[in-house]
């Protein structure tokens, strides 16, 4: 049987410690605190406390995640998918994307140039490989066509 060691932090202290390092989504914070062994009711109270005091904000979290993904060269589709997996509401995702304007075509082109170093595909097999890479990064086919036409 697994025995938990006595906790030195309250759930509120643990939440504030996590949030002092980086933004978290509501669902993500709830999961982390539950995983640490805090009771569901206590976790719910702490999450409400953090929301009331603006320590926790899904819009701010989504915007931060979008900026990180853009810096990694990820496209809009992948960003949306990852935020959905982190249980961020669709309306918040759309609002965050509007707050972080981006030319997805140019980002796709920059990503392709960085990865393929300006080397055009010489045959269909290599072109398909490049397209798959760009799709995995979250770009639409129109963006991929634009990016690979260098």
**What oligomeric state is this?**
single chain
- Shape descriptor reads elongated
Number of helices: 9
SS strand fraction: under 5%
Low-confidence stretches: none
Percentage of residues assigned to helices: 55-70%
- In whole angstroms, the N-to-C terminal distance is 60 Å
Question: Count of DSSP E strands?
Answer: 0
Q: Tell me about the largest β-sheet.
A: none
Mean model confidence by pLDDT:
92
Order of helices and strands: HHHHHHHHH
Structural class by secondary-structure content: mainly alpha
Radius of gyration: 20 Å
Structure description:
The protein is mostly helical. 68% of the residues lie in helices and 0% in strands. The model has no long low-confidence stretch (mean pLDDT 92).
Notable traits:
mainly alpha, 150 residues, 68% helix, single chain, 9 helices
Task: Briefly characterize the structure.
With 150 residues, the chain is mostly helical.
């Amino acid at each position: 049987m697994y025995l938990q060691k006595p906790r030195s932090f309250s759930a509120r202290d643990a939440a504030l410690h996590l949030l002092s390092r980086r933004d978290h989504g509501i669902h993500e914070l709830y999961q982390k605190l539950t995983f640490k062994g805090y009771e569901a009711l206590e976790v719910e109270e702490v999450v409400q406390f953090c929301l009331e005091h603006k320590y926790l904000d899904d819009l701010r979290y989504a915007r931060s995640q979008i900026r990180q993904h853009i810096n990694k060269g990820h496209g809009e589709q992948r960003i949306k998918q990852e935020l959905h997996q982190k249980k961020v509401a669709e309306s918040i995702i759309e609002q965050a994307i509007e707050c972080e304007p981006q030319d997805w075509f140019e980002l796709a082109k920059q990503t392709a140039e960085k990865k393929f170093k300006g080397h055009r595909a010489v045959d269909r097999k290599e072109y398909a490989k490049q397209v798959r890479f760009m799709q995995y990064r979250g770009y639409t086919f129109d963006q991929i066509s634009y990016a690979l036409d260098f």
